[in-house]
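From the pipeline queue, job 12 of 40. The input is one protein chain; the requested action is below.

Action: predict structure.
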Amino acid sequence: MPDPGTLAALFDAAHDRGGEDAVDYPGAVNIVGTGGGPRTVNISTAAAIVAAAMGVRVVKTGSPGRSSQSGSFDVLGGARVRLAGSHTELADMVDRFGVGFAGFFVYPVEVPLLVAEIVPLDLRVLGRFVNTVGPFLARLSVSAQLTGVSRPDDLPALRTLAERRVGQRTWLCHNATGVDELVSFAANWVHEGGSGRGLRLEPSGRGAVADLAPGPDPVADLRSVLSGRARATTVETVCLNAAALAVLSGATTDWGRARYDATEVVRGGAALALLDRLGGDG
């Protein structure tokens, strides 16, 4: 990871060299992780849909998977959910469904150019770096963002990037499992942006990282989670992240109520119905 000054200079250069200006999505919250860590079902995509079914406005950024077909772009494509190709399309998705999924257009064009020019260096190194800082590369403005961090050593650099998001509330979360989202079966630390303030979320259930492992079909995994048929640990973990989006967005301050509401939209079928509506539109 570059030092904070170099990292800030890189972001300044990428944002100054053209492309669309950041568009504001007031009241919306994003959930996007740094990647890395153990392979799991796509928790953040499922949590975004659950949160939207709860009434939280969500604008989700993401990427294709680097080493699997479980990246958000891959899962959404398989489920026939359209990625927005412009801010007009993205705003329309949010207005219609309560959630919108941003395509490549929100990222600086310098990123793929850098990938093309990095040869003969190891592309995996660059990919890991881009994934780590990717949650702050998107050219859009939301009111709040939940970013899971798989490697705590990256927190200082990510705090630097969070501080640059003026007017955005940012939570950086991590846990001892290395999963880059909140997990229901282990303690999670949640840090408020660039500050040293934070809170510890105690585990709320039993389980292990193995319970979050993906199956051979990422779309089937997503539907299984949203219908409540997946392993209890996976459903609880997704609902915990959806609850965090509700709290972070300001929709509620009651974590217990938020988790209950997330569980209810899964059990009652609203989350899966929303996925079907999104897929029908695609």
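Job complete. The chain has a mean pLDDT of 90.
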